[in-house]
Design goal:
Helix content is about 15%, strand content about 25%. It has 2 domains: about 240 residues, no CATH class; about 90 residues, no CATH class. It is α+β, with helices and mostly antiparallel strands. It contains 9 helices and 15 strands. Bound molecules: zinc ion (ZN). The site of zinc ion has 7 residues, from α2.
């Protein structure tokens, strides 16, 4: 737990009022930052109790390692000692939907899961992206894999390049469940008992009527400068027990994405009649930043994740380059290093290789001699 009093934080100027409003009603209860070092093992297996299904006194039911935040998001060391193997197996099923929702970003940001940095293939295999060694430097390699050549669009005047492709379909309710599961996992033990209905909801494949209309999140799309390289969870608790508001709010910051929602179905909130009055007017917490964003802005939207129908979305990636610089581009033969007279044709881009600033690839040096067969 981070010392919340010692942290100075900011938000985008467009949300300053919203943050003040939210802070009037909610306190930060906990901030969980994904650790980069091995953590203590937790309770012995014989003493473990599953938070989600209540299983206990059964060390054999806690054989596998349960990640508190999915490993596919880069969490290597934060484990849950309150999740049995059966629940772990059931809840892990939703991770595919999360992966499909994220699309290319785990590859672009080099997030190491169980099997390293994933290779991304778009739906219908039009675009493939992978992390690879290119002339001695680690690079993000993205290429057109269909023969349609429609995915890359390059504007020579502005220098912007946009890559468009379809993500694999995800089921919105499963995305909601996996996010909710992370929220339920960071609850302190003393508050965990209030959320029995939510455990039932996320574990079951049954469609509950009382869930309809409540599976909404606020999703923020931040400029890449404000991304968090490892996931950060924020848990908020309402200041006044009597307030007609959900007791807990959760915010999850992963890379440039922030997901935020209240923890509905809390038994105390249900008992207090919170859900009897129809739609509750909820405050929302804007993204929390650790430096002044100045004039930077961010996009946000409310997403209703209540559907059980597969959703297919188009994703776009854009890069900007200095158009002035582009006029000086030359073509190099990658095998010999020879600079050729071939003009740069933006309409014919089929592959881009992008290095991070600190990578030092070594391209072949042309020695002036024509190699045979090159
Ligand atoms: Zn369980």
């Amino acid at each position: 737990m981070a010392d919340k009093k010692s942290i100075e934080y900011f938000t985008f100027s467009q949300y300053r009022e919203a943050l003040e409003h939210f802070q009037m009603h909610y306190d930060i209860q906990d901030v969980i930052i994904t650790p980069t070092e091995v953590q203590p093992k937790g309770k012995p297996k014989s003493e473990r109790v599953c938070r989600f299904c209540g299983r206990k006194n059964d060390p054999g039911a806690f054989k596998s390692v349960s990640h508190l935040i999915p490993e596919m998001l880069g969490n290597k060391y934060l484990f849950a000692d309150f999740e049995c193997d059966k629940c772990n197996q059931q809840l892990s099923k939703y991770e595919n939907d999360l992966a499909y929702f994220l699309g290319i970003f785990r590859t672009l940001f080099r997030i190491k899961g169980k099997r390293g940095i994933p290779t991304f293939d778009s739906k219908s295999n039009t675009v493939r992206a992978k992390d690879e060694d290119f002339y001695g430097g680690r690079a993000f390699n993205i290429e057109e894999t269909s023969d349609q050549y429609k995915s890359f669009k390059f504007d020579k005047e502005t220098g912007s390049c946009t890559i468009t492709y379809k993500k694999h379909g995800y089921i919105p309710i499963n995305l909601y469940k996996i996010l909710f599961k992370i929220a339920l996992s960071v609850l302190p033990q003393e508050d965990a008992g209030q959320h029995q209905r939510a455990y039932q909801f996320i574990l079951s494949e049954q469609k509950y009527d009382w869930v309809a209309g409540m599976c909404k999140i606020v999703y923020f799309d931040l400029p890449f400068d404000f991304r968090m390289t490892l996931p950060v969870c924020y848990l908020f608790k309402k200041r006044e027990v009597q307030a007609k508001l959900p007791t807990h709010f959760f915010m999850f910051h992963f890379q440039h994405m922030v997901f935020q929602f209240p923890l509905h179905y809390n038994i105390e909130d249900i008992r207090s009649g919170l859900y009897q009055t129809g739609e509750v007017d909820l405050p929302f917490c804007p993204p929390i930043l650790y430096r002044d964003p100045g004039t930077a802005t961010c996009h946000s939207e409310i997403r209703d994740l209540s559907s059980y129908e597969k959703m297919e979305e188009v994703q776009q990636m854009s890069f900007g380059m200095d158009p002035e610089y582009l006029t000086q581009l030359g073509a190099m033969n990658p095998e010999t290093g020879e600079i050729t007279g071939i003009a740069f044709k933006p309409d014919e881009i089929v592959r881009m290789v992008i290095y991070e600033g600190d990578e030092k690839p070594e391209f072949p040096k042309f020695n002036g001699r024509k190699e045979s067969g090159s």
